[in-house]
Amino acid sequence: MTTFIARLKSVVKRVIAPVRQPNPITKFEYSTLPWIDKGDADVDAFIRQNPGHKDLSYDLAEKMKFWRENGYVILEQALQKEWLDQLWLEAEELIEHHEKYQTLVRVDLPSYQNNPIQPIKNVPKSILNGPYIKFNDFHDNSVIGKKLMLHQNIVSFLSAIFDDKVIGMQSLLFKYGSQQATHQDFAYVVSEIPSHLAAAWIPLEDVHADSGPLFYYPGSHKIDKFNFGNGIFFNDKSTLNPDHFATYLDETCQKAGLEKKTLLIKKGDVLIWHAALAHGGEKIGNPELTRKSFVCHYSSSKAYQHHRQSPNAEPIRRTINGADVFASPIMPDQEDIFDAGKTM
Ligand SMILES: O=C(O)CCC(=O)C(=O)O
Prior knowledge:
Blueprint: H1 2-20, H2 43-49, H3 60-70, E1 72-75, H4 81-96, E2 104-107, E3 117-119, H5 125-128, E4 133-136, H6 143-149, H7 152-162, E5 166-174, E6 198-203, E7 214-216, H8 242-255, E8 261-262, E9 270-274, E10 279-281, E11 293-300, E12 317-320, E13 323-326
Parallel strand pairs: 5-13
Antiparallel strand pairs: 1-9, 2-3, 2-4, 4-5, 5-11, 6-9, 6-11, 7-8, 7-10, 12-13
2-oxoglutaric acid binds next to strand 5, strand 10 and strand 11.
């Protein structure tokens, strides 16, 4: 009898389990795409209906049309250089007196493999001053970081492509090139609607070709999504890994005839890219060369309603240029400790 019941349970499990498994997500759901990614997107009609976008350093309609086809835009000389210098000055203070600060850094070195995310005070200065470091969410600590993240020229573009209020989700600060393999951000930076995601790459100095510049494949935001074995997001249930993802993206872009471009922009310019633009960091050719940069990820108000580190709490919002960024729920006492940006 016991064996019969055990066998019956096992049959029921085999029949029921697949039914219970939610279908893995293998593409962006068409109905939830930002309007500009839909087949009938009419940029000129949008501009006519939303005439408020004035005083920008670029032609919004032209940039939006370029975005729809290529999955990125470069806004030339859109950011004040004094703001960029101030941000890097603060980064230098953060490194120099790291024992005073709690900012989290990611260390991509074998010795940190088990615990790559560390409070900055625990990481030696020699490591902080080298490659393999990403400073996480420094905008939490810095007024100028927040002002750059939600700069009018960036927010105006993003609010047009989302047709919604923009939310600054997270940021990374780099001293050297990341050398990161080809990827698309939606697999790692997950908003509640995965297609409602974009990023800005802000150089804090002119980019040198040997410093490990960012590379990207224009048009790659339209290729079929990679399946990690459990859908389009990479997590602990995935059976394939970021190396497989990179190989798939490089091969698929090559087969589709998409050109690989290197980002050699100047301080003051900004690159904004689509959730699904394939991109990565080139190998560093000259280890003496820095590639100081600030990378911000964004979503829309509809798609990002709670801070990822506190999904059940109402976020504390800071509003700049009509866009929001949520205060850190884990380090409230570290918010805006670098406040020189207040008077800039
Ligand atoms: O700056 C880089 O080299 C890579 C940044 C990046 O790929 C990202 O933040 O998604």
